[in-house]
# Entry
Amino acid sequence: MEFKFYEDINKFYNLVYDFLMKNEAENNLIFSILNTIKINPKRYGEEKPILITVSENNELKLVSLRTPPYNQLLSYTDDLKSIDILAETLLQKKMDLPGVLGLKEGAKKFTKLWCKNKKLKSQLIRNERVYKLEKVVEETLGDRDFIRGTEENQTLILNWAKDFILEALPETEESKITRSLEALVKDIKNKKIFLLMDENEVVSMARKAGKTPNGNLVNLVYTPPELRRRGYATECVAKLSKYLLDEGNKFCFLFTDLINPISNSIYQKIGYRQVIDVDEYRFIKK
# Structure
């Protein structure tokens, strides 16, 4: 198998497009990140994105990327030998990685190889599941007001976003939280934050996030603890999903943490269906 780095994001995107499209839902995060850094290469950090393919006889087997300081990201692959090639080559180049995120079997294999050779320990940070929706269940749409977040709501949105990160991703470094909140200010200006209202009170939020050729990612779904179990998150996500479909998307995608049965149940109620499980590992010194 052949391993190759790329410098030109547009050339890389065009090269891997057809491969990623064979499993568009499984590869939604890679598509989202590529579409973001095509527009803003420094969106996730000052360092250049690391763009990689693994192929055999000129046929792509794996796409991988990293936006330092974040984890190595793996595409979907049905050839796990490509994971060996990726790990072995990055080890030969003496790269340091904080962790890996990808399809369950691939992430596990990469982690085992990496930690054995680097003499590191690994920690399974999250078991996640990718869901895809093609049609919203009408009964979940409700009748509450649904608005775009604006600069008038900015303080509330930023506070909720920080609470979301600390609750869902408690290991996140302060510098990464700061960077995420800075990006969120731009999302507010770009009309990507949506709020559910109940009697003129903001009760839940969600974000129109990364784009794939035929779909759109939904994330940053948050309802404060004191307002939960009232159906607000269900209605908020249902309304945003319908909005995205009405925009012309064929699908919507989202990630859930499998330790949270409530959120998984909510999304299935709306019409989301399981696509693939993905795991995230952190590498730690012994």
